[in-house]
Specification:
It contains 13 helices and 19 strands. By secondary structure, it is an alpha/beta fold. Bound molecules: 5'-deoxyadenosine and iron/sulfur cluster.
Length: 433
């Protein structure tokens, strides 16, 4: 009989892919099957994120809850970025935890399972060529890692300390993985890396020089692969060659994540982002001039140490000029092992909250204005999810989420949809062809 696995995933798409890899290894090699209640599980995993401060005691209280109600001999494993940065501290504080597995050690999941109190968190470990078993949550869209780790030194960010230096996965392996996904029914791939357009800077062995633009060209030759998405590109590496390939390659979906972080060139310098406000606006302009209906999303941090009112006004100014289609916005949160942790010119908490609210209100207003203009438009939607109430949802090429009345026969299909009503995060339409 199979053993039962419960796994909770926090954080980014990279973590979701790591979770798929762990499920694949555990089900193929150890006969586990995923269930959705931890009380019946033989193995409980929590795949953690540490990008912002999720109070550590929250992790421990959650672990305590698992421990209280789990089956008596069930194991608990802590994985992911908080595992990387807290290491054996986790077992010291929660001795009932069986093992700790860092974000760069995912391939060792079946090993740590059999070693009591194992702590595997080496951020120099190289699993860029590890042949993970196949498991995908979605049949229609395949997440594929193209690089591991991050070579940047943004002063606010803990990720280089949890996922280590950047190593690219050989392009032939990526193409093979995409081909396998297409063979099993996926028409879309979603390429993942901390810094996708820095792809090719370092491979673990000898390797032909292949950059991200070339990787996109190679992937787009796969027959039956219709859509390519990726996250996250870095504004610093958005050279003309990359933007031109993005614009003219019909398989590349026309939505771009451009993490701004701040609109102030001074703050960007303190963050060590490597670009200025002007460079960012110039890249947006180039992109929009080549792809007028491109959707641009962004990440913004408010109240970074030393951010003055004028600096914040620069962020609002970029927001008004770019009119982002989606934003992920956060108050700065000091992280251990980062350069900014030592910065002393902390912004007052009330000011930080007020700035976040002002930014988000401005964005809501922009989105409402933009969405109102979409009524009656027609988009080709790739359907991926069954919703309740007999709706099916999918995305347009430029990443608008659209639902229509329908059932599972639409899943994995492309249809032309006319927008009939507007919502803030999801639009409703009807299939017209
Ligand atoms: N504080 C707040 N937000 C952060 N991010 C990364 N580190 C921090 C931090 N210390 C945000 C950035 C990044 C996104 C994934 O999380 O905006 O792009
Ligand atoms: Fe993903 Fe970063 Fe969170 Fe790690 S810390 S899970 S890389 S968002």
């Amino acid at each position: 009989m199979s053993k039962k696995l419960f796994i909770e995933t926090l954080g980014c798409a990279m973590n979701s892919r790591d979770t798929e890899h762990m499920i694949a290894e555990l089900s193929e090699k150890e006969n586990y099957e995923v269930i959705d209640n931890f009380e019946n599980a033989d193995l409980i995993l929590i795949n953690t994120c540490s990008v912002r401060e999720r109070p550590v005691h929250k992790l421990f209280s959650e672990l305590g809850g698992f421990n209280k109600k789990k089956k008596p001999d069930a194991k608990i494993g802590v994985c992911g970025c908080t595992a990387s940065h807290l290491g054996d501290e986790i077992i010291k504080r929660a001795p009932y935890v069986s093992f700790v597995l860092g974000a760069r050690n995912v391939s060792k999941i079946t090993e740590v399972l059999h070693k009591d109190k194992a702590v595997e968190i080496d951020i120099n470990y190289d699993e860029s060529e590890f042949a993970f078993k196949d498991f995908r949550t979605s049949k229609y869209k395949a997440y594929i890692n193209i690089s591991i780790g991050c070579d940047k030194a943004c002063t606010f960010c803990i990720v280089p300390k949890t996922r280590g230096d950047e190593v690219s996965i050989p392009d032939a392996l990526i193409v093979q993985e995409a081909q396998r996904a297409v063979n099993s029914g996926a028409k879309e791939v979603f390429l993942l890396g901390q810094n996708v357009n820095n792809y090719g800077r370092r491979f673990s062995g000898e390797h032909e020089k292949v950059n991200f633009t070339e990787l996109l060209r190679r992937l787009s030759k796969i027959e039956g692969l219709e859509r390519i998405r990726f996250t996250s590109p870095h504004p610093f590496h958005m050279d003309d060659e990359f933007i031109e390939e993005f614009a003219k390659n019909p398989k590349i979906c026309k939505s771009m994540h451009m993490p701004l972080q701040s609109g102030s060139s001074k703050v960007l310098k303190d963050m060590k982002r490597g670009y200025t406000k002007e460079w960012f606006l110039n890249r947006v302009q180039k992109l929009r001039s080549m792809v007028p209906d491109v959707h641009i999303s962004t990440d913004i941090i408010v109240a970074f140490p030393g951010e003055s009112d004028e600096d914040f006004q620069e962020t609002l100014d970029v927001m008004k000029r770019v009119r982002f289609d989606q934003i992920f916005s956060f108050k700065y949160s000091p992280r251990p092992q980062t350069e900014a942790e030592a910065f002393t010119n902390i912004v007052d908490e009330d000011v930080a909250s007020a700035r976040l609210t002002e930014l988000q209100n401005l964005h809501t207003q922009i989105i409402d204005e933009k969405n109102a203009k979409l009524l009656g438009n027609v988009y080709t939607v790739y359907f991926e999810d069954l919703l309740h109430d007999y709706y099916v949802s999918g995305r347009s090429d430029n990443n608008i989420i659209i639902k229509v009345k329908g059932s599972d026969e639409l899943l994995g299909e492309f249809r032309d949809v006319k927008i009939t009503s507007i919502g803030r995060t999801i639009l409703t339409g009807e299939v017209i062809g």
